[in-house]
Amino acid sequence: MKEKNTSCETKEFRAVWIATVTNIDWPSKKGLTIEEQKTEYVKLLDAVTAMGMNAVVVQIKPAADAFYPSAYGPWSEYLTGVQGKDPGYDPLSFLLEETHRRKLEFHAWFNPYRITMNHTDLNRLSQDHPARMHPDWVVAYGRQLYYNPGIPEAQEFIVQGIAEVVKNYQVDAVHMDDYFYPYKIAGVEFPDLSTYEQYGKDRFSNIEDWRRDNVNQLVKQINAAVKKEKASVKFGISPFGVWRNIADDPTGSNTAAGMTNYDDLYADTREWIRQGYIDYIAPQIYWSIGFAPASYDILVDWWKNEVSQRPVHLYIGQAAYKINQNSDPAWSDPEEYPRQIALNRDSMVMGSIHFSLKDLNRNPLGIKDRLIQDLYKKPAAIPGMPWLDSVNSKQ
């Protein structure tokens, strides 16, 4: 979508995540009436616009389900309380209409592999759930079920499920967060050895490289499918904040994070940037400035260098949920969050995504007031993407 307000002197992406999984942000609980759901969302948008935001990132496929009629997943239980139950309207159509009415961009947020949140029983899924029809695509890890990233048919199914939305709805972007291969459970190996032996052993000498390639191929294919449907739709990812630590790679960040994208989540963010698979990247730098294992300022600088001279915007995923809630004393300082935004601007970062709306609305240490009265007081246009603008102008 083209910039709405070209008269704005400031260009800065200002977005907030609206999470639906376990009813974090919207709807506030399962089983609300249609009118209650609609009223809640409008109220959330009122808060978003009051804070000077220009985009929302709304989770429309939190767990292999859907907030819209879909051939690739059942109705989400977070709407009605019953997976597969028609809520009586098309929530996504409503969300888009209300969002665009306020001149906000709508980034449709998908979780690609996750099927369940706290159980591993296929029989508890709705009768029409694709995972029940294709149990060979499914793996259990910890207390959750996942589509196996190494199975080509499962990968294609995920890609088609995202293309369905881009085809049928006027979303401005497709968005994914940090959940690729699941966060590791100590001492528990992800159960895909037989899949590797079937699909990867002849091409990759170790299972880790094969896993990374599975995710790379998914990202590449999603981008291609999105652009094929509507070339102007953006594709962005918000990964964990550290690609690799310098101890493991001299080109990694000067951090000592307990886990990394590359080594633990098999998400090679560098590859996506260099290959042009994404239009923006928004690393979740959920630590304070000066935090020894992973300092905010060090990571902003590292990511800035990663996207330098490349057609990829850098936004920062910001930890609103940590304000006044964390053992790190920096988060008790009302100036920490404003300092992070100021640092972004000084570093030529193109904007922020805040997690999540619920946390900003709590107004911890007055941050919501600061956004309204100071940090986001002046309106901002979303920075243009020249590599997409030529496409936009023809549509």
Could you explain how this protein is built, in words?
α1 packs parallel to α3 (91-101) and α5 (152-168) packs parallel to α7. The radius of gyration is 20 Å and the shape is globular. The model is unreliable at 1-7 (pLDDT under 50). The protein is built from 14 helices and 13 strands. With 395 residues, it is α/β, with parallel strands linked by helices. The strands form three sheets. It has a nine-stranded parallel β-sheet.
Task: Write a short abstract of this structure.
This protein has 395 residues and is an alpha/beta fold. 36% of the residues lie in helices and 13% in strands.
Structural class: alpha/beta
User: How much helical structure, as a percent, in the residues?
Assistant: 25-40%
The dominant shape is globular
Q: Give the strand order of the largest sheet, numbering strands 1, 2, ... along the chain.
A: 10-9-8-7-4-3-2-12-11
Q: What order do the helices and strands come in, and which of them pair?
A:
Blueprint: E1 10-11, E2 13-18, H1 34-50, E3 55-61, H2 77-80, H3 91-101, E4 105-110, H4 130-133, E5 138-141, E6 144-147, H5 152-168, E7 173-176, H6 193-199, H7 207-229, E8 234-237, H8 261-265, H9 269-275, E9 280-281, H10 296-307, E10 313-314, E11 316-318, H11 336-346, E12 351-354, H12 357-361, H13 367-375, E13 380-381, H14 386-394
Parallel strand pairs: 1-13, 2-3, 2-12, 3-4, 4-7, 7-8, 8-9, 9-10, 11-12
Antiparallel strand pairs: 5-6
Helix pairs in contact: 1-3, 5-7
Name its key features:
disordered N terminus, globular, 13 strands, 395 residues, 9-stranded parallel β-sheet, 14 helices, alpha/beta
